[in-house]
Design a protein that fits this description.
Elements: H1 16-26, H2 29-35, H3 40-57, E1 65-70, E2 75-80, E3 90-94, H4 108-118, E4 122-125, H5 137-151, E5 159-164, H6 166-180, E6 188-192, H7 201-209, H8 217-228, E7 251-256, H9 262-274, E8 279-284, H10 300-314, H11 317-327
Parallel strand pairs: 3-4, 3-5, 5-6, 6-7, 7-8
Antiparallel strand pairs: 1-2, 2-4
Family: Belongs to the 'GDXG' lipolytic enzyme family.
Pfam families: Abhydrolase_3
Keywords: Hydrolase
C-alpha cells in the first residue's frame, strides 16, 4: 500500500461481493464452527482451521521482515513492512480469537500490512492461550508486553495500541488499568471488531436482527468461557468500567456491518464518548469479523488500514507540534 494514497471514506452500503462472501461464509465456516466441540481437542481443530484461513486469505507485502522476541516473560514477533525501520514510535498489536486460538504468526500478515501502511514497526505479543492458561494469564501478559516495550526505550506516548476481537478487550483492559494506576498512556488505540461484552449479551441481541456469518453468539461464548471459567461475569477485569474514559487515549473502532460484534463496537464507542473520552466509530457495511486481516477476500481491508494510518498520524504529539511550529 502506497503511503501517499488518500484514505477513502467508509462505504455507505454493502457491495455485492461482500454479500456473497457473507452467504458463502455462513454455509461454510458458519456450519463448521457450530460442529467443533469446545474442549481441548476442539480448540486444536479450531487453531488449525483459523491458521489455514488467515494464511490463505492474508497477504504480506514483499520485503516484510519478522524477528522473534523470546524473553522469559514476553514472547512475540517484531514485524516490519518493506522499508520500515525502528524509530521513535511503534505499534503494540494484540491479536484476538477468543483468548484461545491465534498467535503472532497467524497475525503476521495483518501486522505486516499495518506496518507497511503506517511506516511503524509492529510488535505482536504472543500471550498465553486458554484453556491451558485461563484468566488472567492473557491480561497479565499484555501488561508485561507493554512494560517490556517501555524498557526498550519507547515512551508510553510513542506507543500506539492496536488489536482485534478479544485483543480489543485486552487492549481496553490495559488502558483502563493504567488509568486506575495513574500511569502514562499510549498515544492511541485502534481496534478491529473488538469484543467487549464477554457474556455475549450484546452479540445475542444483535443476532436477533442479523446472524453473524461465521459463528453464533452461543458458540463464541463457549469458546471464551475456556478463558473465564469460574470467574464472575462482573469481575472488574472482565466487565470493564469505562468511567475513566477521560483519562484514556483516543480510539478508532472499526467493525463489519455483518458481524455480531458490531454491537460491541457501538457500545464501546458510546461508553467512551459518554464518559468524556474520544472515539471514532466506523461500521463497514456488509463486512465480516476482522475483515482487515483478509485482503484476498475483502478488498476493503486495505482501505480500512489507510484510515488507521491517518488516525495514528493525527495522534502523534511530536508531529502535531512540528506542524504547529511550521504554521506559526
Amino acid at each position: 500500500m502506497d503511503k501517499e494514497v488518500a484514505a477513502p471514506p467508509v462505504p455507505s452500503r454493502a457491495t455485492r461481493r461482500s454479500a456473497l462472501t457473507a452467504v458463502a461464509t455462513r454455509y461454510g465456516l458458519g456450519v463448521v464452527s457450530g460442529l467443533i466441540p469446545m474442549n481441548q481437542s476442539g480448540v486444536w481443530v479450531a487453531r488449525g482451521l483459523v491458521a489455514a484461513i488467515m494464511g490463505a486469505l492474508g497477504s504480506s507485502p514483499r520485503g516484510t521482515r519478522a524477528t522473534a522476541v523470546r524473553t522469559p516473560t514476553v514472547p512475540g514477533d517484531w514485524v516490519l513492512g518493506p522499508g520500515v525501520r525502528f524509530g521513535r514510535r511503534a505499534v503494540y498489536y494484540i491479536h484476538g480469537s477468543a483468548y484461545a486460538i491465534c498467535s503472532a504468526r497467524t497475525h503476521r500478515s495483518l501486522a505486516a500490512r499495518l506496518s507497511a501502511v503506517t511506516g511503524l514497526p509492529v510488535f505482536v505479543v504472543d500471550y498465553r492461550l486458554a484453556p491451558e492458561h485461563p484468566f488472567p494469564a492473557a491480561a497479565d501478559d499484555i501488561a508485561a508486553g507493554f512494560d517490556w516495550l517501555l524498557t526498550q526505550g519507547y515512551a508510553a506516548g510513542d506507543i500506539v495500541l492496536a488489536g482485534d476481537s478479544a485483543g480489543g478487550h485486552l487492549a481496553v483492559d490495559l488502558v483502563v488499568q493504567r488509568a486506575r494506576e495513574e500511569a502514562s498512556q499510549p498515544a492511541a488505540v485502534a481496534l478491529f471488531s473488538p469484543l467487549i461484552d464477554l457474556t455475549f449479551g450484546l452479540a445475542a441481541e444483535q443476532e436477533r436482527t442479523r446472524r453473524d456469518p461465521a459463528i453464533t453468539a452461543a458458540a463464541a461464548r463457549r469458546l471464551v468461557d475456556l478463558y473465564t471459567a469460574g470467574i464472575p461475569d462482573d469481575h472488574p477485569r472482565l466487565r470493564l468500567d469505562l468511567a475513566f474514559a477521560d483519562r484514556l487515549p483516543p480510539f478508532l473502532i472499526q467493525a463489519g456491518g455483518a458481524e455480531m460484534l458490531s454491537a460491541d463496537a457501538r457500545y464501546l464507542d458510546r461508553e467512551l464518548r459518554e464518559n468524556g473520552g474520544t472515539s471514532t466509530l466506523e461500521i463497514w457495511p456488509g463486512l465480516m469479523h476482522v475483515f482487515q486481516a483478509l485482503p484476498r477476500l475483502t478488498p476493503e481491508a486495505d482501505n480500512a488500514l489507510l484510515r488507521v494510518r491517518d488516525f495514528l498520524a493525527a495522534t502523534d504529539p511530536v508531529a502535531a507540534e512540528t506542524d504547529s511550529k511550521a504554521v506559526s
